[in-house]
Write a structure and sequence with these properties.
alpha+beta; Glycoprotein, Type 4 Pilin; Dna Ligase, domain 1; six-stranded antiparallel sheet; 29% helix; AMMECR1; AMMECR1_N
C-alpha cells in the first residue's frame, strides 16, 4: 500500500468499483487543436451533482462545457491536508456531461475504501477533475517521466492471474518516488504478492498517459454558486 492516501489511485479488476478504472481498454483521446479540455466549470458541476444528490434534490441540468468523450477521473479530498475521500474514473472515452455526473457520485459514495461522503463533510471538501489524454505504449517499465506521465501497468501475479493498476500523473511526484519505487508500489496495489525482481518489472506492459487536472474547494464552489444566484435575481 502507498505511504499515504494521496497515492491511493489504483485498478479494480471488475468494472468501476474500488479505485474505479474500467477494464475495457483506454482511449487515445487528444485535445482538439491542442486546446485545454479541463475547465473549472467541470469541478463546479461535480459539486452541483453531489450537493443535489446528498440533499435528495433533482439532478442539475447539463452544463455548457464540451461534451466530447474523454477518459476521466473524479477525486474527492478532505481538509487542509487534502486526504483522499474517494477516487473513481474510467479509461473508456466517455461523454463528459454523463461521465462527470456519474463519477462525481460514484467517487463520493461508492469507493469501497471509504465511507460515503455525507452532508456534514461538504464544507471541507475539494474536488479534482482529471481528463486523461495522450496515451502511449511504453518501451519498458522505465519509459515514462515522473511528474509528467500517469502509468497503467498490466502484469501477471505469482499465481498466473492477469491484473492491472494505475497511478495518475501527480502520484509519484507527490510521494517522492522514483521509477522503480512507483512500479513496485503499483504492483503491490494491483495485487502482486511475490518477490519483485528485475525480471518481474521487465515483464510488465506499461501504458503512459498525461492528464489535465483542475481542483476546486467547496468554498470556491459556494462563492460561485452564490454569485450565480445573486445575478439571477437582478
Amino acid at each position: 500500500m502507498a505511504a499515504n492516501n494521496k497515492a491511493s489511485y489504483s485498478y479494480h479488476q471488475n468494472g468501476t468499483h474500488q479505485n474505479g478504472i474500467q477494464q475495457n481498454g483506454h482511449s487515445n483521446s487528444r485535445p482538439l487543436n491542442g486546446e485545454k479540455v479541463a475547465c473549472i466549470e467541470m469541478c463546479f458541476f461535480c459539486f452541483d451533482v453531489l450537493v443535489n444528490h446528498l440533499n435528495n434534490a433533482a439532478p442539475p441540468k447539463n452544463p455548457c462545457f464540451t461534451n466530447d468523450p474523454f477518459p476521466l477521473f473524479v477525486t474527492w479530498q478532505m481538509g487542509k491536508d487534502k486526504h483522499l475521500r474517494g477516487c473513481i474514473g474510467t479509461f473508456k472515452a466517455t461523454n463528459l456531461h454523463l461521465g462527470l455526473r456519474d463519477y462525481a457520485i460514484q467517487s463520493a459514495t461508492r469507493d469501497e475504501r471509504f465511507q460515503p461522503i455525507n452532508l456534514n463533510e461538504l464544507a471541507n471538501l475539494y474536488v479534482s477533475v482529471s481528463i486523461l489524454t495522450r496515451f502511449e505504449e511504453a518501451n519498458s517499465y522505465l519509459d515514462w517521466e515522473v511528474g509528467v506521465h500517469g502509468i497503467r501497468i498490466e502484469f501477471h501475479t505469482e499465481r498466473g492471474g492477469k491484473r492491472s493498476a494505475t497511478y495518475l500523473p501527480e502520484v509519484a511526484s507527490e510521494q517522492g518516488w522514483n521509477h522503480v519505487q512507483t512500479i513496485d508500489s503499483l504492483l503491490r496495489k494491483g495485487g502482486f504478492r511475490g518477490t519483485i525482481t528485475t525480471e518481474v518489472r521487465q515483464s510488465i506492459l506499461l501504458t503512459r498517459y498525461q492528464s489535465e487536472k483542475i481542483t476546486v474547494s467547496y468554498n470556491d464552489y459556494s462563492t460561485w454558486r452564490n454569485q450565480l444566484t445573486a445575478n439571477s435575481v437582478h
